[in-house]
Amino acid sequence: MQAKNYAIKEWAKADRPREKTMVQSSLLLSDSELLAILIRTGTRDRTALDLARELLQKGGNNLRELGNLSAKELMSIKGIGAAKAVTSRAALELGRRRQSFSLPDRPQVKYSRELASYLQDQLRDHQHEVFEVVFLNRASELPRSKLRGFVINA
């Protein structure tokens, strides 16, 4: 006999990911629960949390690897369509941008490691070779346009 798969709306309110976030904090949620909130709905057979767990498995249970997967790869999971795949990729990109080192409008570069750290964060997840050129003025400041990247198609 197969166990019944209960929809999240049938769970106790304290166990639901959205309600947990409202009452407690999103810091207490697992990666799969956070993804389930983004996915919003499941399928007839699987909850949004089940889909989120499968998404994480597809990325090797690593958010960085999950962020490297294409929308097409995410859509290979039954129940993940274009909208859910794009939403997941957008959220992971927002997280990457938030984590990356931010520079003020006209930063003065005092140490090369600051610039190296910024560039590493910006270039880390590219699937192709990227060539960055950094121009500084005489005061060792980046111009207002900040960094300009040039993609080399290998």
Topology summary:
Layout: H1 17-23, H2 31-39, H3 48-58, H4 63-68, H5 71-74, H6 82-99, H7 112-123, E1 130-133, E2 148-151
Antiparallel strand pairs: 1-2
Helix pairs in contact: 2-3
Number of spatially distinct domains? 2
Our Rg estimate from Cα atoms comes to 20 Å
Share in helix: 40-55%
Give a quick account of the main beta sheet: strands, pairing sense, barrel closure: 2 strands, antiparallel
Low-confidence stretches: 145-154
Strand order of the largest sheet: 1-2
The amount of beta strand, in percent, is 5-15%
What count of helical segments does DSSP give? 7
Shape: elongated
Structural class: mainly alpha
Distance between the termini: 54 Å
What order do the helices and strands follow?
HHHHHHHEE
Total strand segments? 2
Q: What is the quaternary state of this protein? A: single chain
> What's the average pLDDT?
76
Description:
The protein has 154 residues and is mainly alpha-helical. The chain folds into 2 domains: 8-99; 112-151, no CATH class. Helix content is 44%, strand content 5%. It has 7 helices and 2 strands. Strands 1-2 form a two-stranded antiparallel ribbon.
